[in-house]
Protein: MmgE/PrpD family protein
Amino acid sequence: MNTPDPVNFDPIDALSQFATRFSCAPVPAPSLDVMRLCLLDWVICGLGAVDDPIAAAMLTHATATKSGAGSGVSSVFFSTQTAQPRMAALVNGTISHALDFDDTHFGHIGHVSAVVFPAALAVAQAEGRDFGSFLTAARVGAETAVRIGLWLGRAHYQAGWHQTATAGAYCAAVASAMLMDAPVAPTLRIVAGLATGQKAQFGSAMKPMNAGLAAGHGVEAAQLARAGLDGSHDVMLGVLVTQAGEGNLAAFDRLGEDWLFDTVSHKYHACCHGTHAMIEALLSLGPQSLCQLDVDQIERIAVTTHPRWMSVCNKSDPATWLEGKFSYRFLAALILRGERTIGTEPKGYFPLDAQSRDLIARIDVVADDRVAKWRHRC
Structure:
Protein backbone atom coordinates (compact mmCIF):
# COMPACT_ATOMS: atom_id res chain seq x y z
CA MET A 1 0.00 0.00 0.00
CA ASN A 2 1.71 3.22 -1.21
CA THR A 3 1.26 6.93 -0.46
CA PRO A 4 -2.47 7.75 -0.19
CA ASP A 5 -4.33 9.90 -2.70
CA PRO A 6 -5.04 13.14 -0.77
CA VAL A 7 -8.24 13.86 -2.71
CA ASN A 8 -10.19 10.67 -2.12
CA PHE A 9 -8.44 9.21 0.89
CA ASP A 10 -10.44 7.73 3.77
CA PRO A 11 -8.45 6.25 6.69
CA ILE A 12 -11.20 3.71 7.31
CA ASP A 13 -10.92 2.30 3.78
CA ALA A 14 -7.16 1.96 4.17
CA LEU A 15 -7.37 0.33 7.58
CA SER A 16 -10.15 -2.07 6.63
CA GLN A 17 -8.15 -3.22 3.58
CA PHE A 18 -5.09 -3.62 5.81
CA ALA A 19 -6.99 -5.73 8.36
CA THR A 20 -8.63 -7.85 5.66
CA ARG A 21 -5.27 -8.51 4.00
CA PHE A 22 -3.68 -9.78 7.20
CA SER A 23 -6.68 -11.87 8.13
CA CYS A 24 -5.27 -14.20 5.46
CA ALA A 25 -1.62 -13.20 4.96
CA PRO A 26 0.99 -13.75 7.70
CA VAL A 27 2.28 -10.81 9.71
CA PRO A 28 6.12 -10.67 9.55
CA ALA A 29 7.68 -12.84 12.25
CA PRO A 30 9.79 -10.03 13.81
CA SER A 31 6.64 -7.98 14.36
CA LEU A 32 4.92 -10.91 16.04
CA ASP A 33 7.99 -11.36 18.24
CA VAL A 34 7.65 -7.74 19.38
CA MET A 35 4.00 -8.43 20.16
CA ARG A 36 4.89 -11.46 22.28
CA LEU A 37 7.24 -9.33 24.37
CA CYS A 38 4.54 -6.68 24.73
CA LEU A 39 2.07 -9.34 25.83
CA LEU A 40 4.44 -10.45 28.59
CA ASP A 41 4.96 -6.85 29.69
CA TRP A 42 1.20 -6.21 29.66
CA VAL A 43 0.45 -9.24 31.83
CA ILE A 44 3.15 -8.23 34.33
CA CYS A 45 1.79 -4.67 34.50
CA GLY A 46 -1.68 -6.02 35.16
CA LEU A 47 -0.54 -8.47 37.82
CA GLY A 48 1.58 -5.75 39.42
CA ALA A 49 -1.57 -3.77 40.14
CA VAL A 50 -2.97 -6.45 42.47
CA ASP A 51 -2.92 -4.13 45.50
CA ASP A 52 -3.98 -1.01 43.65
CA PRO A 53 -7.33 0.49 44.73
CA ILE A 54 -8.25 1.00 41.07
CA ALA A 55 -8.10 -2.76 40.51
CA ALA A 56 -10.33 -3.40 43.52
CA ALA A 57 -12.86 -0.84 42.31
CA MET A 58 -12.99 -2.30 38.80
CA LEU A 59 -13.55 -5.83 40.12
CA THR A 60 -16.35 -4.53 42.35
CA HIS A 61 -17.89 -2.81 39.34
CA ALA A 62 -17.72 -5.98 37.24
CA THR A 63 -19.33 -8.05 39.97
CA ALA A 64 -22.12 -5.54 40.57
CA THR A 65 -23.00 -5.18 36.88
CA LYS A 66 -25.37 -7.64 35.22
CA SER A 67 -23.12 -7.86 32.17
CA GLY A 68 -20.11 -8.24 34.46
CA ALA A 69 -18.49 -11.03 36.41
CA GLY A 70 -19.95 -14.50 36.02
CA SER A 71 -21.98 -13.70 32.89
CA GLY A 72 -19.49 -14.57 30.15
CA VAL A 73 -16.39 -16.56 29.26
CA SER A 74 -13.71 -13.84 29.12
CA SER A 75 -11.05 -13.77 31.85
CA VAL A 76 -10.66 -10.94 34.35
CA PHE A 77 -7.48 -10.09 36.25
CA PHE A 78 -7.36 -11.42 39.86
CA SER A 79 -10.66 -13.28 39.53
CA THR A 80 -11.76 -16.86 38.99
CA GLN A 81 -14.97 -15.42 37.57
CA THR A 82 -15.45 -14.49 33.93
CA ALA A 83 -17.27 -11.65 32.21
CA GLN A 84 -18.83 -10.62 28.94
CA PRO A 85 -16.15 -9.49 26.45
CA ARG A 86 -16.86 -5.76 26.66
CA MET A 87 -16.77 -5.79 30.47
CA ALA A 88 -13.61 -7.92 30.57
CA ALA A 89 -11.89 -5.53 28.17
CA LEU A 90 -12.93 -2.53 30.26
CA VAL A 91 -11.73 -4.07 33.53
CA ASN A 92 -8.47 -5.54 32.23
CA GLY A 93 -7.60 -2.42 30.26
CA THR A 94 -8.08 -0.21 33.29
CA ILE A 95 -6.17 -2.51 35.64
CA SER A 96 -3.23 -2.97 33.28
CA HIS A 97 -2.81 0.81 32.97
CA ALA A 98 -3.35 1.50 36.69
CA LEU A 99 0.37 1.66 37.51
CA ASP A 100 1.21 3.67 34.35
CA PHE A 101 4.02 1.17 33.82
CA ASP A 102 2.88 -0.27 30.48
CA ASP A 103 4.48 0.36 27.09
CA THR A 104 4.38 3.63 25.15
CA HIS A 105 4.61 4.38 21.44
CA PHE A 106 5.75 7.90 20.69
CA GLY A 107 4.33 7.98 17.17
CA HIS A 108 0.94 6.97 18.50
CA ILE A 109 1.57 9.29 21.51
CA GLY A 110 0.07 6.87 23.97
CA HIS A 111 -0.19 3.38 25.41
CA VAL A 112 -1.19 0.68 22.95
CA SER A 113 -0.91 -2.69 24.72
CA ALA A 114 -3.20 -1.65 27.58
CA VAL A 115 -5.95 -1.16 24.99
CA VAL A 116 -5.40 -3.77 22.31
CA PHE A 117 -4.61 -6.82 24.46
CA PRO A 118 -7.65 -6.54 26.77
CA ALA A 119 -9.95 -6.29 23.76
CA ALA A 120 -8.26 -9.03 21.75
CA LEU A 121 -8.05 -11.44 24.69
CA ALA A 122 -11.68 -10.95 25.69
CA VAL A 123 -12.96 -11.54 22.16
CA ALA A 124 -10.58 -14.41 21.40
CA GLN A 125 -11.82 -16.27 24.47
CA ALA A 126 -15.47 -15.58 23.67
CA GLU A 127 -15.06 -16.67 20.05
CA GLY A 128 -12.86 -19.69 20.76
CA ARG A 129 -9.93 -18.39 18.69
CA ASP A 130 -6.41 -19.80 18.99
CA PHE A 131 -3.30 -17.98 20.20
CA GLY A 132 -1.99 -17.32 16.70
CA SER A 133 -5.21 -15.60 15.66
CA PHE A 134 -5.21 -13.59 18.89
CA LEU A 135 -1.61 -12.42 18.43
CA THR A 136 -2.11 -11.51 14.77
CA ALA A 137 -5.26 -9.51 15.51
CA ALA A 138 -3.51 -7.72 18.37
CA ARG A 139 -0.54 -6.88 16.13
CA VAL A 140 -2.73 -5.53 13.33
CA GLY A 141 -4.70 -3.57 15.91
CA ALA A 142 -1.52 -2.14 17.41
CA GLU A 143 -0.39 -0.95 13.99
CA THR A 144 -3.80 0.67 13.54
CA ALA A 145 -3.31 2.62 16.78
CA VAL A 146 0.02 4.00 15.61
CA ARG A 147 -1.30 4.98 12.17
CA ILE A 148 -4.39 6.73 13.59
CA GLY A 149 -2.24 8.40 16.24
CA LEU A 150 0.08 9.78 13.57
CA TRP A 151 -2.90 10.84 11.45
CA LEU A 152 -4.40 12.77 14.36
CA GLY A 153 -0.95 14.17 15.17
CA ARG A 154 0.55 16.14 18.02
CA ALA A 155 -1.96 18.97 17.52
CA HIS A 156 -4.68 16.56 18.69
CA TYR A 157 -2.68 15.73 21.82
CA GLN A 158 -1.74 19.35 22.52
CA ALA A 159 -5.41 20.33 22.24
CA GLY A 160 -6.10 18.13 25.26
CA TRP A 161 -7.02 14.74 23.79
CA HIS A 162 -5.53 11.51 25.14
CA GLN A 163 -4.46 9.36 22.19
CA THR A 164 -4.53 6.20 24.31
CA ALA A 165 -8.30 6.67 24.46
CA THR A 166 -8.96 8.20 21.05
CA ALA A 167 -6.60 6.46 18.59
CA GLY A 168 -6.51 3.49 20.95
CA ALA A 169 -10.19 2.72 20.47
CA TYR A 170 -9.56 2.07 16.77
CA CYS A 171 -6.92 -0.57 17.54
CA ALA A 172 -9.30 -2.40 19.89
CA ALA A 173 -12.00 -2.20 17.22
CA VAL A 174 -9.82 -3.68 14.48
CA ALA A 175 -8.52 -6.50 16.67
CA SER A 176 -12.05 -7.32 17.85
CA ALA A 177 -13.52 -7.25 14.34
CA MET A 178 -10.82 -9.59 13.03
CA LEU A 179 -11.45 -12.10 15.82
CA MET A 180 -15.26 -11.88 15.47
CA ASP A 181 -15.25 -11.94 11.67
CA ALA A 182 -17.17 -8.67 11.89
CA PRO A 183 -17.02 -6.14 9.02
CA VAL A 184 -14.04 -3.88 9.74
CA ALA A 185 -15.15 -0.66 8.03
CA PRO A 186 -18.50 -0.41 9.86
CA THR A 187 -16.73 -1.31 13.10
CA LEU A 188 -14.35 1.62 12.62
CA ARG A 189 -17.14 4.01 11.68
CA ILE A 190 -19.00 3.05 14.86
CA VAL A 191 -15.97 3.32 17.14
CA ALA A 192 -15.20 6.76 15.74
CA GLY A 193 -18.33 7.94 17.54
CA LEU A 194 -17.20 6.34 20.81
CA ALA A 195 -13.50 7.24 20.88
CA THR A 196 -12.89 9.97 23.44
CA GLY A 197 -10.68 10.74 26.42
CA GLN A 198 -9.03 13.87 27.80
CA LYS A 199 -5.58 14.66 29.19
CA ALA A 200 -7.40 16.68 31.84
CA GLN A 201 -8.00 13.31 33.54
CA PHE A 202 -4.26 12.71 34.09
CA GLY A 203 -3.54 12.19 37.76
CA SER A 204 -6.93 10.59 38.44
CA ALA A 205 -8.45 7.11 38.14
CA MET A 206 -9.90 8.18 34.79
CA LYS A 207 -6.42 8.12 33.27
CA PRO A 208 -6.20 4.31 33.38
CA MET A 209 -9.93 4.10 32.70
CA ASN A 210 -9.28 5.86 29.39
CA ALA A 211 -7.44 2.71 28.33
CA GLY A 212 -10.15 0.41 29.65
CA LEU A 213 -12.96 2.37 28.06
CA ALA A 214 -11.15 2.40 24.70
CA ALA A 215 -10.76 -1.39 24.88
CA GLY A 216 -14.41 -1.87 25.78
CA HIS A 217 -15.58 0.54 23.07
CA GLY A 218 -13.60 -1.39 20.47
CA VAL A 219 -15.24 -4.66 21.47
CA GLU A 220 -18.71 -3.12 21.49
CA ALA A 221 -18.21 -1.47 18.10
CA ALA A 222 -17.35 -4.83 16.54
CA GLN A 223 -20.36 -6.45 18.19
CA LEU A 224 -22.66 -3.74 16.83
CA ALA A 225 -21.16 -3.99 13.35
CA ARG A 226 -21.62 -7.76 13.35
CA ALA A 227 -25.26 -7.17 14.28
CA GLY A 228 -25.64 -5.08 11.11
CA LEU A 229 -25.16 -1.49 12.30
CA ASP A 230 -22.94 1.13 10.68
CA GLY A 231 -21.88 4.75 11.07
CA SER A 232 -21.51 7.74 8.76
CA HIS A 233 -19.09 7.38 5.87
CA ASP A 234 -17.95 10.96 6.55
CA VAL A 235 -17.22 10.40 10.23
CA MET A 236 -13.43 10.76 9.98
CA LEU A 237 -13.78 14.26 8.58
CA GLY A 238 -15.88 15.05 11.64
CA VAL A 239 -13.18 13.56 13.86
CA LEU A 240 -10.58 15.88 12.35
CA VAL A 241 -12.77 18.94 12.80
CA THR A 242 -13.99 18.26 16.34
CA GLN A 243 -10.80 16.71 17.76
CA ALA A 244 -8.17 19.08 16.36
CA GLY A 245 -6.68 16.39 14.13
CA GLU A 246 -3.94 17.17 11.63
CA GLY A 247 -5.06 14.70 8.96
CA ASN A 248 -1.47 13.71 8.22
CA LEU A 249 -1.77 11.41 5.19
CA ALA A 250 1.87 10.33 5.49
CA ALA A 251 0.69 8.37 8.53
CA PHE A 252 -0.55 5.69 6.12
CA ASP A 253 2.53 5.48 3.90
CA ARG A 254 3.58 1.85 3.29
CA LEU A 255 0.79 0.51 5.48
CA GLY A 256 1.22 -3.25 5.50
CA GLU A 257 4.86 -2.97 4.42
CA ASP A 258 6.42 -1.05 7.30
CA TRP A 259 5.37 -2.09 10.81
CA LEU A 260 5.72 1.05 12.89
CA PHE A 261 4.61 -0.40 16.22
CA ASP A 262 7.87 -2.37 16.28
CA THR A 263 9.56 0.76 17.73
CA VAL A 264 7.45 0.57 20.92
CA SER A 265 9.16 1.67 24.16
CA HIS A 266 8.94 0.01 27.57
CA LYS A 267 9.17 1.84 30.87
CA TYR A 268 11.69 1.60 33.70
CA HIS A 269 9.55 3.72 36.02
CA ALA A 270 5.84 3.58 36.90
CA CYS A 271 5.06 7.19 36.08
CA CYS A 272 4.67 9.53 33.10
CA HIS A 273 7.27 8.82 30.43
CA GLY A 274 8.02 12.53 30.25
CA THR A 275 9.63 12.40 33.69
CA HIS A 276 11.95 9.47 33.01
CA ALA A 277 14.95 11.45 31.72
CA MET A 278 14.91 13.52 34.92
CA ILE A 279 14.68 10.37 37.05
CA GLU A 280 17.59 8.75 35.21
CA ALA A 281 19.65 11.94 35.60
CA LEU A 282 19.12 11.89 39.37
CA LEU A 283 19.72 8.14 39.63
CA SER A 284 23.02 8.60 37.76
CA LEU A 285 24.36 10.07 41.01
CA GLY A 286 24.50 6.46 42.18
CA PRO A 287 22.84 4.69 45.12
CA GLN A 288 25.71 5.43 47.50
CA SER A 289 25.60 9.17 46.80
CA LEU A 290 21.82 9.24 47.16
CA CYS A 291 21.97 7.33 50.45
CA GLN A 292 24.54 9.77 51.82
CA LEU A 293 22.67 12.83 50.58
CA ASP A 294 21.35 15.16 53.27
CA VAL A 295 18.30 16.68 51.61
CA ASP A 296 18.15 19.39 54.24
CA GLN A 297 21.41 20.77 52.82
CA ILE A 298 19.96 21.21 49.31
CA GLU A 299 19.39 24.88 48.55
CA ARG A 300 17.82 24.69 45.06
CA ILE A 301 17.41 22.16 42.30
CA ALA A 302 16.50 23.22 38.76
CA VAL A 303 14.93 20.72 36.37
CA THR A 304 15.06 21.99 32.79
CA THR A 305 12.76 20.32 30.30
CA HIS A 306 11.22 20.83 26.87
CA PRO A 307 8.08 23.05 26.96
CA ARG A 308 5.86 20.25 25.62
CA TRP A 309 6.03 18.49 28.99
CA MET A 310 4.95 21.44 31.10
CA SER A 311 1.25 20.74 30.52
CA VAL A 312 1.64 16.98 30.99
CA CYS A 313 3.81 16.18 34.01
CA ASN A 314 4.34 19.40 35.93
CA LYS A 315 1.72 19.12 38.68
CA SER A 316 3.09 21.44 41.36
CA ASP A 317 1.17 20.21 44.42
CA PRO A 318 0.16 16.55 44.01
CA ALA A 319 -2.41 15.37 46.52
CA THR A 320 -2.32 11.67 45.57
CA TRP A 321 0.10 9.11 44.17
CA LEU A 322 -1.79 9.23 40.87
CA GLU A 323 -1.08 12.96 40.66
CA GLY A 324 2.48 12.40 41.85
CA LYS A 325 3.18 10.28 38.76
CA PHE A 326 2.75 13.51 36.76
CA SER A 327 4.84 15.79 38.96
CA TYR A 328 8.51 16.55 38.26
CA ARG A 329 8.89 18.07 41.71
CA PHE A 330 7.38 15.18 43.63
CA LEU A 331 9.25 12.50 41.69
CA ALA A 332 12.54 14.36 42.09
CA ALA A 333 11.91 14.61 45.83
CA LEU A 334 11.06 10.90 45.93
CA ILE A 335 14.39 9.94 44.32
CA LEU A 336 16.38 12.33 46.50
CA ARG A 337 14.83 10.74 49.59
CA GLY A 338 15.93 7.30 48.44
CA GLU A 339 12.55 5.94 47.28
CA ARG A 340 11.82 4.01 44.09
CA THR A 341 9.47 4.79 41.22
CA ILE A 342 8.63 1.15 40.54
CA GLY A 343 5.30 -0.39 41.43
CA THR A 344 2.75 0.68 43.97
CA GLU A 345 2.35 3.80 46.06
CA PRO A 346 5.27 4.71 48.35
CA LYS A 347 4.03 4.50 51.91
CA GLY A 348 3.63 7.52 54.12
CA TYR A 349 3.79 10.27 51.51
CA PHE A 350 0.16 11.27 51.05
CA PRO A 351 -0.99 13.60 52.29
CA LEU A 352 2.45 15.14 51.77
CA ASP A 353 4.40 15.55 54.99
CA ALA A 354 6.25 18.72 55.96
CA GLN A 355 9.65 17.39 54.88
CA SER A 356 8.38 16.49 51.41
CA ARG A 357 6.65 19.85 50.97
CA ASP A 358 9.80 21.67 52.05
CA LEU A 359 11.95 19.74 49.57
CA ILE A 360 9.44 20.15 46.74
CA ALA A 361 9.42 23.91 47.36
CA ARG A 362 13.16 23.97 46.61
CA ILE A 363 12.76 22.30 43.22
CA ASP A 364 12.19 24.54 40.20
CA VAL A 365 10.95 23.29 36.83
CA VAL A 366 12.04 25.41 33.87
CA ALA A 367 10.91 25.15 30.24
CA ASP A 368 13.57 25.57 27.57
CA ASP A 369 12.94 24.65 23.93
CA ARG A 370 16.69 24.18 23.45
CA VAL A 371 16.43 20.99 25.51
CA ALA A 372 15.69 17.90 23.44
CA LYS A 373 12.21 16.46 23.99
CA TRP A 374 13.54 13.32 25.66
CA ARG A 375 16.23 14.97 27.79
CA HIS A 376 16.30 16.93 31.02
CA ARG A 377 18.92 18.90 32.88
CA CYS A 378 19.07 18.75 36.68
User: Anything to note?
Assistant: The chain has a mean pLDDT of 92. The chain has 15 helices and four strands. The chain has two domains: 11-263, 273-367.
